[in-house]
Amino acid sequence: MTITMTSDTSPSEQVILATGGYDHTIKLWQAHTGICQRTAQHTESQVNALDITPDKQHIAAAGYTRIRMYDLASNNPSPVVNYEGLSKNVTSVGFQEEGKWMYTGGEDLSARIWDLRSRTLQCQRIFQVSAPVNCVCLHPNQSELVVGDQSGVIHLWDLKTDHNEQLIPEADASIQSIAMDPLGNLMAAVNNKGRCFIWSLSGGGSQEPTKLNPCHKIEAHPKFALKCAFSPDSSLLVTTSADQSARVWRTSDFTLQTELKQEGQRWVWDAAFSADSQYIVTASSDGIARLWNIEKGTVEREYSGHSKAITSLAFRDQIVNP
Amino acid sequence: MAFYDNKHWLLSHIRNSFVSSDDTGMCEMVMQGENLSRKLVSSTKYDCYPGEDDSDEDDMDAMGQSFDIQSDLDFGAHRARSNTAARLEKMDRERKRAAKTKHIKWETAPVTLSRNELAEVFQGKDLKQVSSRDAKSQGGKSLLAQQLEQCPDLPQNPFQTYAKCDGSAHVGVKVRRYGIFLPILAPPDCNYPMTVIILSAAKVEDLIGLTLYKCSIHHPQYKIKGGVENYGMHIAEDDGEIDWDFPSLDPRETVGKFGFKFLAMVEGNNTWPSRSQDVTKDDVDSCPGHDPSGTRSKAQLQAAEMRMKGHMTAMEAPLYQSYQVFVLHPLRAKTEVHLGISGEKVEIDPITQQKVSAKFWVRQRAVSYDTDCIVACDLLETKSNSRTVFRLVYYRSPSPSPEQSSATPHSQSFKHHDFEAPEQVARAVVQQMNHILELRTSSHRREYLAMRERKSHRRKSFHLGPR
């Protein structure tokens, strides 16, 4: 077994942690030491969302009117690809697991699918809604997109059939983030009133579309919730909020497991789990990202270097064979 | 638009749109005012954009809070020409940079896929297989956990906070680039400068901190001694030779002021002012980008304090003040007197316990002058024993002295008293007196000043005369 710690190994064998925010930069960190390895320029716009391509070669940053793709293998501080032709902020970005296409959502009232293969636009799709899109989540079955908008509507868009369904968990509350667990059994959505709604999913096979069965509702935070995410082992759910905390919930009974809070950390914008579901990285307005030990509720590492608020992060860890 | 009355909307608007085009940091300040939003929120109980429904004629809010972002160079109707040049240059740079980037514009699919094609392209994945496979890998250790185990209890880098001053990846923000020689390192590392790029708004102290931070990463073998206060930045030549003729840079100065290309960081620092701990802490807290307006150096505060003190003495000048001074008599004798000054008059009172019998010929009588009769008060000389002589010039109406027949006042109408006092007292008296004189405009004073002017002219013309 070899441990990859030097920077000249390919990024696919490394833990990747990237953060971006209002200082117009994207920083890549050595997760276990807290050292900033690289800083990329994200000119003229804050970073709304980050995601790493499935092959771990690139990182995509959603900003104002464009999505920029940076090379993770080189030290090039400028983007290598610039996806443009959009209006307003792009609020979310993600990838199909084989890297065939990329999905985005934005304030131009639409969710889009971008074909990433050269010279073909076969996958290019657009899904229009009636309010700015805050978040887009891809079902682990890779064929359904869930789109949350500012008017509080959750849209289920079946890519195979173009069939779509709407539901409104709470009237007049903007949906801020949607997440599904890796096995496709649970879906969570948080809104600007700090509530978290949980559905259990049925169907979703190759033939029938996914059905949502309301399952639970948590008063997760006293104010504005910003992000939710399931752990890779589906046992935990994290919600982050403007109340300056991230909270970790057990998916077995939706009770609070830990509150991750640090004096002065301000809004917690984003969070992601490690591959073994033991750690969480959070990004917050104080310009510092933190690595938390979930069991102990303690800060293990701090990633400090951004001069302004961090609003998004991307984290890719992996299970090593024991 | 009634729209702009909505505080929530404005806050959200600033958060979402302006922050990205704002280099002044104002938006950041609004961002930091999260308490404000909390206050607002609490009044309407978590409703994020109340009032949005009221303005249903605005179709704009359907498009979200963020408006189109203005490039920062577009602001303002009157731009200096140099800005145009700067902008062109910026565009040129952008173009060069952009040439290396592949641009992909959004296009809609040329053909709409049939149902079958759709199903094929967006084929679903069977999650049941995944779940069985995943179950096997459960319980494994993550790479992160493994790496964390290998360096447990990693000490927090004390200079981490300075990392935020690093300007290496900032675009459109003023930065300074220095080659910093580190004579503190062992050869050969000490022979080459380390490039440090820092935000122009940062302080020299931040530069030292950032250099130490980079040093701790690139040269972990060097043991940093204490904090930033143990190091100083010196001006250096491009070969690393330190210019010892100059003191090290003042840690409280902003780096934007220094145009040097090369500096050297040495141990020991002669310009760190002896200051208390709390001041040091303040400076550290006020890292650039946080609150530039809030950081005021101690010296600035002192200057402001002094100015304020000046205002106060001017305001308090007409209030009665008494000073203990000596009156100088022509015969080198002096009498201790109380000199009382108020907005109305000036009184000279001999201190009573003086022996009346002795020196009766120089006895100072108690006199008082109306302030309107006082025309000037100036320091004359400072003696070696730190006693200062000052002169009070007053106007004596010619009538009591019969020999003064001239109707127009001339120099004879102006008499003076000379006083001697410790320097501080003398200065205080002169300052108070002049404050009072400035507030009033007596005809006598005008005459006296005019006369003095004439005299000085005459003297000048005399000097300039044929010689």
Automatic annotation (TrEMBL), chain A:
SMART domains assigned: WD40 (SM00320)
Underlying gene: LOC117652067
Organism, scientific name: Thrips palmi
Assembly notes: Part of TORC1 complex. Part of the TORC2 complex.
WD repeat ranges, renumbered to this chain: 17-39, 83-118, 126-167, 218-249, 268-302
Protein name (database record): Target of rapamycin complex subunit lst8
Highest taxon of source: Eukaryota
Entries under InterPro entries matching the protein: MLST8, WD40/YVTN_repeat-like_dom_sf, WD40_PAC1, WD40_repeat_CS, WD40_repeat_dom_sf, WD40_rpt
Major site of localization recorded for this protein: cytoplasm
UniProtKB/TrEMBL annotation, chain B:
Domain CRIM: 141-269
Keyword check for Membrane: yes
Annotated ranges, domain SIN1-type PH: 319-438
Positions of region (Disordered): 273-297
Gene3D superfamilies cross-referenced by the UniProt entry: Pleckstrin-homology domain (PH domain)/Phosphotyrosine-binding domain (PTB)
Top-rank taxon, per record: Eukaryota
Domain Sin1 N-terminal residue range list: 45-126
InterPro entries: CRIM_dom, PH-like_dom_sf, Sin1/Avo1, Sin1_N, Sin1_PH_dom
One GO location term (cellular component): Golgi membrane
Entry keywords, A to Z: Cell membrane, Cytoplasm, Endoplasmic reticulum, Endosome, Golgi apparatus, Lysosome, Membrane, Mitochondrion, Mitochondrion outer membrane, Nucleus
Pfam families given in the database record: CRIM, SIN1, SIN1_PH
Subcellular locations according to the entry: Cell membrane; Cytoplasm, Perinuclear region; Early endosome membrane; Endoplasmic reticulum membrane
Protein name, entry field: Target of rapamycin complex 2 subunit MAPKAP1
